[in-house]
Amino acid sequence: MANSQRYTREIPRxxxxxxxxxxxxxxxxxxxxxxxxxxSKEYENIKLxxxxxxxxxxxxxxxxxxxxxxxPYAVAIIETDEGAxxxxxxxxxxxxxxxxxxxxxxVFRKIMEEGPSGIVxxxxxxxxxx
Length: 130
Description:
By secondary structure, the chain is mainly β. About 10% of the residues lie in helices and about 45% in strands. It contains two helices and eight strands; from the N terminus they run ααββββββββ. A five-stranded antiparallel beta sheet has the order 6-5-4-7-8, with no helix packed on it. A three-stranded antiparallel beta sheet has the order 2-1-3. β7 and β8 (about 120-130) form a beta hairpin. The longest helix is centred in the first third of the chain and has 7 residues, at about 5-10. The radius of gyration is 16 Å and the shape is globular. The chain starts with a helix and ends with a strand.
C-alpha cells in the first residue's frame, strides 16, 4: 500500500483521536470490526478527550536504528478516560515522574521518519500531567 493511502486511512485515529465504542461498552483504538466481548459488529465512532492513566510502562535503552537517537525513552500502556487501551511513547516528562497510575495527556508529536523518502509520521505520545 502506498504511504499516502495509509496516511489518509489513519487520519481519524492519529489526528482526531477517534475510537470505536461497541454496545457492550468496549472501546477500541485501533479499529476493530468485531466486539471481543459480544461478537457484535455494531459500533459508534467516539472522539477521545485525550487524557488517561498509565497502567504499566518500561524504559527502552536498546532499540532499532529508527529510534537510536532518542534512547533511552519510555513507552506506556495507557487506559484513556473512555476505556480504550493504547501504547504510546512518553514525551516531555522526566523518568522520575512516570509512575503506574500517573495521569497523562495525549499530545501530537513526530513519531519517526519513514524510509529513504524521509516522510515524517506524526501521531500521539503521552505527557505526564504533574
